[in-house]
Design goal:
This protein is of the alpha/beta class. 26% of the residues lie in helices and 28% in strands.
């Protein structure tokens, strides 16, 4: 597991941008963290790193935003309004686990369980998965832990 300390929203976005610059199609970034931890900032950085220049916002009410115009499609999911795997499957979101671009899932614990707890084994799902846990340390500082599976 890798730990990164971000001291500002700009640093969090820059981390996402760096990840996107080396990402390959089919990658899923499953992000967990409370409200305000910077999940959407990370998504903004990924979109920027892929070359998308438009506005990026969390798809809380739409469940999914698609950003095109960069080097590959970017699928941004927000599962905040869903209460578990059954609702995720009923919403038809499973196809985004094998994207032709990159998928970022906010509130991923609603699909995969908590990163610190046993859940579906990512290696058995054959995903190119980065599991990310974001935590607020103070008003500006965030702890970002991540681990890769199948990358």
């Amino acid at each position: 597991m890798v730990t990164v300390i971000s001291n500002s929203p700009e640093e969090t976005a820059a981390l996402g941008e760096r990840w996107a610059q080396t990402a390959t199609a089919g990658m899923v970034i499953a992000v967990s963290g409370d409200l305000g931890t910077g999940k959407t900032q990370l998504a903004k950085g990924i979109a920027r790193g892929l070359g998308y220049t438009g506005h990026v916002h969390s798809p809380t009410f739409a469940l999914l935003n698609l950003y095109e115009g960069g080097r590959m499609p970017f699928y941004h999911l927000d599962l905040y309004r869903l209460e578990g795997v059954d609702q995720v499957i009923a919403a038809g979101l499973e196809d985004y686990l094998e994207p032709d671009g990159i998928t970022l899932i906010e509130w991923a614990e609603r699909w995969f369980g908590e990163a610190s707890q046993p859940g579906p084994d990512p290696t058995r799902l054959h995903l190119k998965l980065r599991r990310v846990k974001m935590e607020t340390l103070n008003e500006n500082v965030r702890r970002i832990d991540y681990e890769d599976f199948g990358l």
